From TrEMBL:
Subcellular location as annotated: Mitochondrion membrane
GO cellular component terms given for this protein: mitochondrial membrane; proton-transporting ATP synthase complex
Gene Ontology biological-process annotations: proton motive force-driven mitochondrial ATP synthesis
This protein's name: ATPK synthase
Main location: mitochondrion
GO molecular function, one term: proton-transporting ATP synthase activity, rotational mechanism
Family (UniProt): Belongs to the ATPase F chain family.
Domain of life: Eukaryota
């Protein structure tokens, strides 16, 4: 199919530059990409008939990792004071 309609995982390495230049980087385009990614994730892992807890647990693990990264400097600073 046309290069613009292909998902990233189907683009060859030589076509990557051309594929990136065809993407819409406007605020509406980025919002649409985020919505499309969320819908794809939701349909694949959460909205399934015989699904397990994998989708929700991945979402929670991602939240925990992101929260830890945001607060890393705080943890590092207070841990140092606590032990010395």
């Amino acid at each position: 199919g046309p290069l613009l309609e292909r998902p990233l995982m189907e683009v060859r390495l030589g076509e990557l530059h051309t594929w990136i230049t065809t993407c819409d980087f406007s605020p509406q385009g980025l919002l649409g990409a985020v919505q499309k990614a969320w819908n794809s994730y939701y349909d694949k892992y959460i909205n399934v008939r015989r699904g397990g807890p994998a989708g929700i647990s991945m979402l929670l693990a991602g939240y925990c990792l992101l929260s830890y990264c945001w607060n890393y400097q705080y943890f590092r600073r207070h841990r140092w004071r606590k032990y010395h």
